[in-house]
Amino acid sequence: MNEKRTDQTPTAINLHSKSRLLIIEFSDGAKFQLPCEYLRVFAKAKEVRTLDKPVVGKASVNITEIEPQGQYGLRLSFDDGHDTSIYSWDTLYDLGLNQEQNWQAYQDRLKEIGYTGDDKTTADKRSIKLLYFTYLVKQLQKESEEVEIPASVTDVTLLIEWLRKRNRDQAHLFQEGSFQVTVNKQFSEPFTRIDEGDEVALIPTSPNAPVKK
User: Fold this and answer.
1) What residue segments make up the domains of the chain, in order of their start?
2) What's the per-residue H, E or C state across 42-81?
3) What are phi and psi of 43, to 5 degrees?
4) Res 122 pLDDT > 50
5) Are 66 and 74 in contact (CB under 8 A)?
6) Residue 89 contacts residue 10 (beta carbons within 8 Å)
7) CA 10 to CA 26: how far, in whole Å?
8) Residue in 109, 120, 45 with CA at minimum distance from that of residue 81
9) How much is the pTM?
10) 25: which strand partners?
């Protein structure tokens, strides 16, 4: 990874622990969603950089603490105990700008060493509870239900897509922009993770149901 110097500085830094994402916006308008796993395997600490093999088994790692380092960067602490890596603004910008290429190179390196993955983060199926409000209750004839979602449904966006496909006749009820979503009583983002046992509420923003086209 060839890091290039940038004069950009962050204007917003937000950790979404549920989704294990660090979201950073820079002064030039660039906005990056950096997974905690990505930040961990590309940590700058000497004990990481000098390893003979890439860091593995960090799919479930999360950031536990963000500590500013003067005016130039952050020290990130992870829940696997690693807390010695400092990420400068240049490093974070570069990781965001080259995320796709970096991650592909990392995956290629894992294949080279024969690593197949031992950190299973998603069961084949997961059970969650769905809560409905206003017209959804009347249209679906239920206030809540327990459902099993497939392994491919990992976030809010994919959950809504799955609900639309589950019953095509009711797909219009889940029209984009017609409701808000909370996960475990917290308003969600499209990328908010969906995990086993989560409670997901769909709250319409209008008293009137979308019209089926």
Assistant:
1) 10-112, 125-204
2) CCCCHHHHCCCCCCCCCCCCCEEEEEEECCCEEEEEECCC
3) -60, 150
4) no
5) yes
6) yes
7) 4
8) 45
9) 0.77
10) 12, 31
Among 126, 146, 139, 128, which Cα is nearest to 182's?
128
Q: Give the Cα-Cα-Cα angle 163, 123, 66 (nearest 5 degrees).
A: 90
Calculate helix-pair angle for 99-112, 89-97, nearest 10 degrees.
80
CATH class of 125-204: alpha beta
For 129-149, write each residue's pLDDT tens digit: 999 999 999 999 999 999 999
- The type of residue at 118 is D
Q: pLDDT for 96-117, tens place per residue?
A: 999 999 999 999 999 998 887 7
**Nearest alpha-carbon partner for 70 in 88, 94, 58:** 88
Class of domain 10-112: alpha beta
Tokens 């400092």: give the residue.
Answer: 86
